[in-house]
UniProtKB/TrEMBL annotation:
The keyword Transferase applies. This is Sugar kinase. It comes from Paracoccus saliphilus. One of its GO terms (molecular function) is ATP binding. Belongs to the carbohydrate kinase PfkB family. It comes from the Bacteria. Residues 1-299 form the Carbohydrate kinase PfkB domain. SUPFAM superfamilies: Ribokinase-like.
């Protein structure tokens, strides 16, 4: 089975248990939960039995070791996670507003992950892995971006493949250099996994069909469009396949896209058809939103099969 590599932030998340508009007064929090989009993605790969590794950097503190222990438990190669003495692991403090949107306090830019650079362990993973999964957040900060771009160049040069989840908020698009990096990765992408607004942000197209056409003409083999509670769609040279959403009660939406991506990429690389990969990824995303904590909702194959058996009857 191809070995999947990702690069980027490994964080903990603390979640306010009351809803409201931000952190203006003391309030109860739950956590720390292991987090960071690339970490959640790779955890989902590992839980499905995929062969996977992550290049990242954490502080020598409980938050860093919590993440390493979780990823190692789920079978991830953690040799590329550098533990930085005297530095701290990044935190995301999340509070939900009444309308379901989120307010964040992030310490990522001041944390160990900001100083990510290529280490011997990282370089050797770039030589031994066959597939690289890039997340836009890893392209937004210079250290992580340099490592991510190097991994892309090395793995693609050896004939490997690339999946790309832009995972990007419009507010950070003006970050110096980010546009060029997003374009550079897109030019090398085999499997592209955007959500709706990202599809338009990155192509400049006004409607979905034009955006998809632009991407296929650019040489991207497969596009998987994530539609949140509306399900998902797959596009390739043969056409379009849609999958209806499974009906679930949404408890915590963070991480759904990462679990969806982890499941889709694992299954496609293992030889599943696009439809089968889409069906299981749709279930992985839906199951993820039913659990509190970004990484707590990643699923094993047995959990996905049971979840599908319970929910597909709703169609
Ligand atoms: P994020 O970056 O916040 O994790 P995303 O935009 O990358 O999210 P979503 O579209 O929110 O990803 O979720 C990924 C997939 O998970 C969806 O395409 C769908 O298959 C499934 N999913 C997400 N939310 C729900 C939901 N409320 N009900 C059913 N399925 C869902
Ligand atoms: Mg996302």
């Amino acid at each position: 089975m191809p070995k999947i590599l990702t690069v980027g932030e490994i964080l903990v998340e603390l979640i306010a248990t009351t809803k409201g508009d931000g952190f203006h007064e003391p309030q109860p929090l739950i956590g720390p939960y292991p987090s960071g989009a690339p970490a959640i993605f790779v955890n989902q790969v590992g839980r499905l039995g995929g062969d996977a590794a992550i290049i990242g950097r954490v502080g020598d503190d409980n938050f860093g070791h919590l993440n390493i222990a979780r990823l190692a438990r789920d079978g991830i190669d953690v040799s590329g996670i550098e533990v930085a003495q005297g530095e701290v692991t990044g935190c995301a403090f999340v509070r939900y507003r009444e309308d379901g949107s989120r307010s964040f306090v992030f310490t990522m830019a001041q944390s160990a992950t900001a100083a990510l650079s290529i280490t011997g362990a990282g370089a050797s993973l770039m030589e031994s892995c066959d597939h690289i999964h890039i997340m836009g957040t890893a392209l937004s900060a210079s250290g992580m971006a340099e490592v991510a771009m190097e991994a892309v160049v090395r793995i693609k040069a050896r004939g490997g493949s690339l999946s790309f989840d832009p995972n990007i908020r419009p507010e950070i698009l003006d970050t110096p250099g980010l546009r060029a990096r997003l374009d550079g990765v897109l030019d090398q992408t085999d499997i592209f996994l955007p959500s709706g607004n990202e599809l338009f942000m990155l192509t400049g197209a006004r409607d979905e069909a034009s955006a998809i056409r632009v991407l296929l003409e650019r040489g991207i083999r497969e596009i998987v469009l994530k539609r949140g509670a509306e399900g998902a769609s797959h596009f390739d040279a043969d056409g379009r396949t849609d999958i209806a959403p499974l009906t679930v009660e949404e408890i915590d939406p963070t991480g759904a896209g990462d679990c969806f991506g982890g499941a889709f990429v694992t299954l496609r690389l293992a030889g599943a058809t696009p439809f089968e990969a889409l069906r299981l990824a749709n279930a992985a995303g839906a199951r993820a939103v039913t659990r509190t904590g970004p990484m707590e909702g990643s699923s094993t194959r047995a959990e996905l099969d049971r979840f599908l058996a319970d929910h597909e009857t709703d169609y």
